[in-house]
Amino acid sequence: MKQERKVLIATFIGGLVFGVGLAVSKMTHPEVVLDFLQLDDLGLLLVMGGGAVVAAIGFHIATRSGKVAPLTGKKYGLRKRDLDKDVMVGGVIFGIGWGISGICPGAAFASLGIGNYVIIWAIVGMIFGAHIHGCVKESQGN
User: Fold this and answer.
1) Do the Cβ atoms of 32 and 44 come closer than 8 Å?
2) What DSSP state is assigned to residue 133?
3) CA angle in degrees (0–180, nearest 5) for 106-101-135
4) CA–CA separation, 136 vs 30, rounded Å?
5) What is the Cα gyration radius of the chain?
6) What span, in angstroms and rounded, lies between the C-alpha atoms of 110 and 20?
7) Are the CB atoms for 89 and 21 separated by under 8 Å?
């Protein structure tokens, strides 16, 4: 089997597991997320904290192993980025969008899987925003 096909299959399976996790934790329900953001229900803190702990352990082990990723053949490592203006502006825009829609990009797509088709407007907004960002960055020569 070709390497690209293996990557696509692994990506699909990973996305499926992630989406099921989001659905089970109810992060696909904007009202639950908005209750969390308003500090009315902190249950999602356990979900996000649990995910962060598992990811941190995985990154720690992988980056110290000296091994390469089985699908890409690239050495494990952390990508570092300075806390520049683009990161700050992107974080603010993400936070505003999350607060308005009650859903983040991953959960928005998973939300489609549980029949929340109204969320398509948020997804269209995310795609439109990403396109605008790309146009602005391209016009700046970055």
Assistant:
1) yes
2) H
3) 70
4) 30
5) 18
6) 8
7) no
pLDDT in tens, 56-87: 998 888 888 888 887 778 888 777 778 888 88
How many domains are contained in the chain?
1
What pLDDT does residue 53 have?
94
Task: Count the neighbouring beta carbons within 10 Å of the beta carbon of residue 38.
Answer: 9
| Count of residues in the chain | 142
Chain CA centroid to CA 133, Å = 18
Q: Which long-range contacts (CB under 8 A, 24 or more apart) does 12-18 make?
A: 18/106, 18/110
Kindly give, in sequence order, each residue whose CB lies less than 8 Å from that of residue 114, ignoring residues fewer than 6 positions away.
23, 28
CA 31 – CA 123 distance, rounded (Å): 17
- DSSP string for residues in 95-119: HHHHHHHS--HHHHHHHHHTT-GGG
Q: What range defines the domain where residue 122 resides?
A: 3-140
- As a whole number, the mean pLDDT across the chain is 84
